[in-house]
């Protein structure tokens, strides 16, 4: 994954081609020293997290319900076949539905990605607003290790880095269209550190070899994965805060140089926005890449409250039964479900 010119400290910077050797135990070997991408942690003086939760955690309460979680991400592509090969053959997602124009992929029967063929769209630009990465969350390190081994075996060119963020262990990839993808597992929630309402995140080195040697287990059953968070490119962080926090109702969960993170329910982040490459970006035209992403609120009253806040802010949106569809200031489409 290409890194922004002024990279914030929470994400890795790719700098070397990945080489793979498969030993008799089928453990990944990455060639050379410095083959993982760790970057320095954020300063303890820099606020790096706020989230909804109890006073016991020190998290800030969001306007959205604690049960809020992320749903399916829609991607648009000119060619379905390479995307299918990557997300099914390498990442290991299940095909839930398939046609010549659409691919529905998921885990344990739940849709995570909806990929639509759209041949006449312009290509996504990394300096424009849009998707920075989708993030698939695994329930434990064992299931993440199984997936990591498969991806770097089947699609080694897609590997873009790794980092220990204190709240999570993350590995980064780029799909055939250049969309960022994070595969991660959370660290134990009772080990997350909160300060002044913010969860303390950083980015320490994470060695893929050590991770696989510690967690890869042939006996581990394949566990369900979910969409953990969505990270967006936007043009202005204050506008992003106004829309995602003040209007939609997420709590700001972290602040870093050029980035904001948001959550509900005491999570470290369900959403992130950055201006690392896209500062000043205008509303995006229809392009490949992100089509929309879904947020599940699990509460009809909460959805009505979102509609009221959108109306009070003078924003245009559509509401159909238990669904609100609204664009952020850059045309990133958000679908909120009760």
Structure description:
Mean pLDDT is 86; it is low at 1-9 and 12-56. This protein has helices at residues 80-90, 141-154, 208-215, 237-247, 300-312; strands at residues 20-22, 28-30, 69-77, 94-98, 102-107, 110-117, 130-138, 159-164, 168-174, 180-186, 194-195, 198-199, 226-233, 251-256, 259-263, 271-274, 289-296, 317-320, 323-327, 333-337. Strand 15 and strand 16 (271-274) form a beta hairpin. With 338 residues, the protein is an alpha+beta fold. The protein is globular.
How is this fold's topology laid out?
Layout lengths: L19 E3 L5 E3 L38 E9 L2 H11 L3 E5 L3 E6 L2 E8 L12 E9 L2 H14 L4 E6 L3 E7 L5 E7 L7 E2 L2 E2 L8 H8 L10 E8 L3 H11 L3 E6 L2 E5 L7 E4 L14 E8 L3 H13 L4 E4 L2 E5 L5 E5 L1
Parallel strand pairs: 3-6, 7-10, 13-16, 17-20
Antiparallel strand pairs: 1-2, 3-17, 4-5, 5-6, 7-13, 8-9, 9-10, 11-12, 14-15, 15-16, 18-19, 19-20
Give descriptors for this structure.
single chain, disordered N terminus, 338 residues, alpha+beta, 17% helix, eight-stranded mixed beta sheet, 33% strand, 5 helices
Q: What's the oligomerization state?
A: single chain
Radius of gyration: 19 Å
Question: What level of helicity do the residues show?
Answer: 10-25%
In terms of DSSP E residues, the strand content is 25-35%
Major β-sheet, in short? 8 strands, mixed
Helix-strand sequence: EEEHEEEEHEEEEEHEHEEEEHEEE
Q: What best-fitting shape do the alpha-carbon axes yield?
A: globular
* Widest sheet, order of strands: 4-5-6-3-17-20-19-18
Helices and strands: which structural class?
Answer: alpha+beta
Mean pLDDT across every amino acid position? 86
End-to-end Cα distance: 34 Å
Number of helices: 5
List segments where confidence is low: pLDDT < 50 over at least 5 consecutive residues: 1-9, 12-56
**Number of DSSP E strands:** 20
């Amino acid at each position: 994954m290409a890194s922004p010119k002024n990279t914030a400290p929470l994400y890795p910077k790719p700098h070397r081609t990945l080489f793979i050797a498969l030993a008799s135990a089928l453990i990944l070997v990455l060639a050379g020293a410095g083959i993982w991408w760790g970057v320095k942690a954020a300063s303890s003086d820099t606020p790096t997290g706020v989230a909804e939760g109890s006073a016991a955690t020190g998290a800030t309460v969001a306007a959205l319900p604690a049960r809020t979680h992320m749903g399916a991400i829609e991607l648009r592509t000119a060619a379905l076949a390479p995307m299918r090969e990557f997300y099914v053959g390498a990442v290991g997602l299940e095909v839930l539905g398939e046609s010549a124009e659409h691919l529905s992929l998921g885990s344990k029967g739940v849709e995570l990605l909806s990929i639509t063929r759209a041949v006449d769209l312009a290509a996504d630009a990394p300096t424009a607003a849009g998707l920075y990465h989708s993030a698939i969350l695994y329930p434990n390190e064992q299931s993440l290790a199984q997936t990591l081994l498969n991806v770097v075996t089947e699609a080694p060119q897609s590997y873009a880095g790794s980092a220990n963020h204190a709240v999570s262990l993350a590995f980064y990839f780029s799909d055939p269209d250049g969309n960022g993808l994070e595969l991660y597992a959370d660290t134990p929630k009772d080990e997350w550190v909160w300060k002044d309402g913010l969860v303390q995140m950083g980015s320490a080195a994470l060695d893929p070899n050590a991770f696989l040697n510690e967690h890869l287990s042939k006996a581990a059953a394949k566990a369900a994965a979910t969409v953990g968070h969505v990270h967006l490119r936007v043009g202005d962080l204050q506008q992003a805060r106004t829309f995602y926090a003040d209007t939609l109702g997420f709590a700001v969960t972290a602040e870093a140089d050029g980035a904001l993170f948001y959550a509900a329910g005491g999570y470290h982040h369900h959403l992130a926005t950055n201006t690392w490459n896209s500062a000043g970006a205008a509303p995006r035209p229809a392009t490949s890449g992100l089509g929309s992403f879904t947020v599940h609120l699990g509460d009809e009253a909460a959805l009505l409250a979102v509609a009221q806040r959108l109306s009070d802010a003078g924003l245009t949106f559509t509401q159909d039964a238990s669904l609100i569809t609204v664009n952020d200031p850059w045309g990133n489409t958000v679908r909120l479900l009760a």
